[in-house]
Amino acid sequence: MDLPPLSLDQLSAVIAAAPAPADLYTSLSDYEEQACLLPTTTADTRDLLVDFYTAFFFSHLLTDQICEARALTRRIPRELLQSDSLQNCLLLLRAVWQSKHPEIYKVIRELPWSERSQPLVRRYESYFQEKTLKEVSNSYETIRATTAARYLGLDTAAAEGGDPAIIARFTACGWRWDGQAQLLHPKPIVAAPPKDDSLQNELSRVMALIGTQGS
């Protein structure tokens, strides 16, 4: 089935209709060929392409495809990369690639993002915090509150003072706080096994066959 033409309205519809990151990535991937054929010489198409490539970039980050995100930035027309939004994407990619957590939060929170991009930026911030929390939980037996706060983009000065609100962010996840030693004891987070869609599809097919034979 032919895709509707890429436009700002269609881009908004695609983003709104794809709540799962993998679905968003797939939908935007389908539009990359159209994007490649659009001219970059008019203001309207430039704005559309900048918003498209920004959204496509975040769909890569939300599906943890960092190498592919780097490859995407090499496919984007050079004249578009001069836009504020895509310059921000390049800065964010560099920080993610180098695992510079404070820089990641600084780019996300302090640099200007277009109104259309902001929901994806906020979504990635939540995703990155959750991902980092799991990694820290499974990597440390004990950790200082300031270090944990830095990983999650929280107020390190408040954490150093043992701010109950900061400590509660971690104890709510099952971590234990040792006030005397001023240390947090993370609780490992067991990741759910990946869903095997091929197995599920095969089981559905078998059950359908059984139902047909039994009728």
Summarize this entry quickly.
The protein has 215 residues and is mainly alpha-helical. 66% of the residues lie in helices and 4% in strands. It has helices at 8-17, 21-37, 43-62, 66-75, 84-97, 101-110, 118-139, 145-152, 156-160, 164-171, 197-214, and strands at residues 143-144, 176-178, 183-185.
Describe the structure.
The chain has 215 residues and is mainly alpha-helical. It has 2 domains: 1-120; 129-191, Orthogonal Bundle (Arc Repressor Mutant, subunit A). Helices cover 66% and strands 4% of the residues. The chain is built from 11 helices and 3 strands; from the N terminus they run H-H-H-H-H-H-H-E-H-H-H-E-E-H. The chain has helices at 8-17, 21-37, 43-62, 66-75, 84-97, 101-110, 118-139, 145-152, 156-160, 164-171, 197-214, and strands at residues 143-144, 176-178, 183-185. It has a 3-stranded antiparallel sheet. Helix 2 packs antiparallel against helix 3 and helix 4 packs antiparallel against helix 5. It is elongated, with a radius of gyration of 22 Å.
